[in-house]
Design brief:
Jelly Rolls; elongated; alpha+beta; about 375 residues; 7 helices; single chain; five-stranded antiparallel sheet
């Protein structure tokens, strides 16, 4: 099960990368697809990663990524089989003789975990870079239970204006420097059954030896980052509210826009989901000198508008943010609000929304 048939090709353009077909043996694939079927309930929409104002990773939903994903750790059989194949003696010997020095280091790396991504019709992942660990190498294996049903889903690598397309092929391994811009083209699956999806196993190779006793963790999906931000970031966003707002530095403009379009928008979807609401498109609009990050949902058969209200720069940042639920229209319109302090946690904010929704749904 662990002996790969070596069909490796080292390519140079637009940047050095490795392609290998028939990566897993047939017996290994049977085990892997069995585990993939068991992972179905744990898959959630794939999120986009960025760096927040404090240097920490921030995860949020974005239209440039559309797929379902879940992380798998020890004691996953798929992760074990991936490690056994990638670091089998024939593979290690090949890496040690590679032209590209970066690939020569792979024998001294390990795979701490894998991300399983599932693509159905219309799914894609636009250009992005990975945050690699150690030697900054990304390894991906393409899979499909029935390859004849999958079209598209090719991997495109781009570097300094040059591109190359690596066609989707079942059981194909690709390794490339993680900081290379890459995307997955739009997928079409001739089935609505997720067992026929285009699957990829992604790994960011870490430099060093694996721990003697790896920590056992259950499969887990990315969660949107809940972060209502420091008062300085709130102030930068407040200043974008009205035409009379103070001058801003480029850095303030960046963090203000990031906070509104990434943090508040993502947080709104997160707390609405926990409140039992399915929000439509999230919008940002000015109301006088204030800003609203809002979306529409159905509550008890009626349309409601739910969102965050950010008061303008004349309001102290510590008092500027609130949640609101708006029901009705015209003369029957009613708006209920609750203040949300900058340091409020996810559970506390969800509780505020619950109280607003209960009040909005209470019969007159």
């Amino acid at each position: 099960m662990c002996e790969p048939r070596l069909m490796l090709t080292e390519r140079d353009a637009p940047r050095a990368h490795v392609v290998m077909d028939d990566f897993f043996a047939k017996a290994a694939l049977e085990v892997i697809f069995q585990e993939l079927r068991a992972l179905e309930p744990r898959m959630k929409p794939g999120l986009v990663r960025d760096i927040g104002h404090d240097g920490q990773s921030v995860f949020f939903a974005h239209k440039r990524r559309r797929n379902q994903a879940v992380w798998i750790h020890d004691p996953s059989k798929t992760l074990r089989l991936f490690r056994e194949q990638l670091w089998s003696p024939p593979m290690v010997e090949w890496f040690e003789r590679a032209r590209e020095p970066l690939f020569q280091i792979i024998p001294n790396c390990w795979a701490p975990h894998l991300q399983v991504s599932r693509y159905m019709t219309g799914d894609h992942y636009d250009f992005h870079e990975d945050e690699g660990a150690g030697v900054n190498l990304t390894a991906i294996v393409f899979l499909a239970a029935d390859p004849t049903k999958v079209r598209g889903g090719d991997l495109v690598l781009s570097y300094y204006g040059q591109e190359t397309t690596i066609r989707f092929r079942h059981n194909r391994l690709v390794i490339f420097p993680s900081k290379t811009l890459h995307r997955v083209t739009r997928v079409r699956v001739d089935s609505t059954d997720t067992k026929h999806a285009r699957i990829s196993l992604q790994c960011w190779l870490g430099y060093g030896r694996p721990p003697t006793k790896p920590k056992r963790r259950p499969p887990e999906a990315d969660r949107p980052t809940f972060l209502l931000a420091e008062e300085s970031i709130l102030a930068a966003a407040q200043a974008m509210g009205g035409s009379g707002a103070r001058d801003q530095t480029p850095e303030d403009l960046y963090w203000g826009a990031f906070y509104l379009s990434r943090i508040l928008s993502s947080n709104l979807r997160l707390i609405a989901e926990q409140g039992g609401l399915e929000i439509g498109p999230v919008r940002i609009r000015r109301t006088g000198g204030d800003l609203e990050v809002h979306g529409r949902a159905r509550l008890g058969g009626a349309s409601v508008r739910v969102g965050f209200l950010l008061r303008g720069p004349e309001t102290p940042p510590a008092e500027a943010l609130s949640l609101f639920v708006e029901t009705g229209r015209g003369e029957k319109k009613s708006v209920a609000r609750r203040a949300v302090p900058p340091g409020a946690g996810e559970r506390e904010t969800v509780a505020r929304l619950h109280r607003l929704l209960l009040a909005a749904h209470r019969p007159e």
